[in-house]
Amino acid sequence: MPNFKQKILSHYQILLQDKIDIYQDLIQSLTEDAQNDAKSSAGDKHETTLSKLHIEQEKIAHKLKEAIEQQAILSKLDIEQPSNKVILGSVVITNHLTVFISTALPKITIDNRAVFAISPQSPLGMQMMHQAVNSEFLVHQVQYKILEIL
């Protein structure tokens, strides 16, 4: 049976794969729309439509690239590595939040507990990195205390 940390990682991997699949489908659909429009249109309206499709494709391609990069970060995590200090891949339980140190991703709920995935470069991530249980620090006028590191 997967532990709490494995459940978190698995949930985020599925979430990112779903995002990637959606973005790839959208890009494919926009490509088909552009091809169909090219067959049936002419003139300025055609150029405007193609331009809009191209801009939309670029936006989605950027989001796709971002999701693939986030997926690569997750795939490199060694969540089985025990550590008494916060490292990349740690799940940190504080007096306010449960945080997964990885990459910035949406909040999820695992075992009835809200989990926030943050990057080690975020303000909170920078304060947490290499800290031990019972460490305290202030971020945005909130006093955090590390209660547990998984």
Describe this structure as you would to a colleague.
Helix 1 runs antiparallel to helix 2 (44-76). The chain has helices at 4-40, 44-76, 123-128; strands spanning 91-94, 98-101, 105-110, 113-118, 136-139, 142-149. It starts with a helix and ends with a strand. By secondary structure, it is α+β, with helices and mostly antiparallel strands. Strands 3-4-2-1-6-5 form a six-stranded mixed beta sheet.
Radius of gyration: 21 Å
Tally of strands: 6
Mean pLDDT value = 92
Annotation field: number of helices: 3
Helix-and-strand structural type:
alpha+beta
Q: Roughly how many Å apart are the termini?
A: 16 Å
Write the element-wise H/E pattern from the N-terminal end onward: HHEEEEHEE
Shape: elongated
Strand content: 15-25%
Low-confidence stretches: none
- Helix percent reads 40-55%
Described by strand count, sense and barrel closure, the largest sheet is: 6 strands, mixed
Strand order, sheet with most strands? 3-4-2-1-6-5
